[in-house]
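Handout, section 3.2

Students often ask what a structure token actually looks like in practice. Rather than define it abstractly, here is a full record for Carboxypeptidase-like regulatory domain-containing protein. The first block is the sequence as you would receive it.
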Amino acid sequence: MKSSFTLALFLLISIQFSAQSLRGRVVEASNQQGIPFVTVQLGDNYGVISNAEGYFVLQRKTTSEETPILFSSMGFESVEILLKDFEENQIISLKPATYELDEVLLFDKQLTAEEILEKFEANAKENHQLSNAKVQVFLRSNDDYKAETFGIDIKKHPTSANQNVKR
């Protein structure tokens, strides 16, 4: 009886944990080969990166079925799938994308660190999103520690100063 209860409990926990994770693979649409290191993002603040073959395991951190899962990688179009539409071991195909740059500047001189920082500061608001900074702090403290005083007894060792030293 005890072993069947343990087995039932183990199966229930296994089902619960398997329901908490989402598994799949990200492949290139043209040749179905896995794309390495794809960003798989669930919502705004959680995500993982696929392995070298394109496989990923994403822990379900939200209960809302309307939460999007975003798949993105440099050189590919991003794909968004709602959590309710995601199937276990689903294969997600990404199409190659071409990005066109507006302007490229080439210099024939080496910029100093100060010049690079000046250019960054001058264009920071235009080129970078700095307002969504998120800081996570972890602090552990313990007020139970009380230092104890202790004494040390030192006994003088007989030295050779009292003995006649021959040179």
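Discussion prompt for tutorial groups: The helical segments are 2-20, 113-127. How would you have guessed this from the sequence alone?
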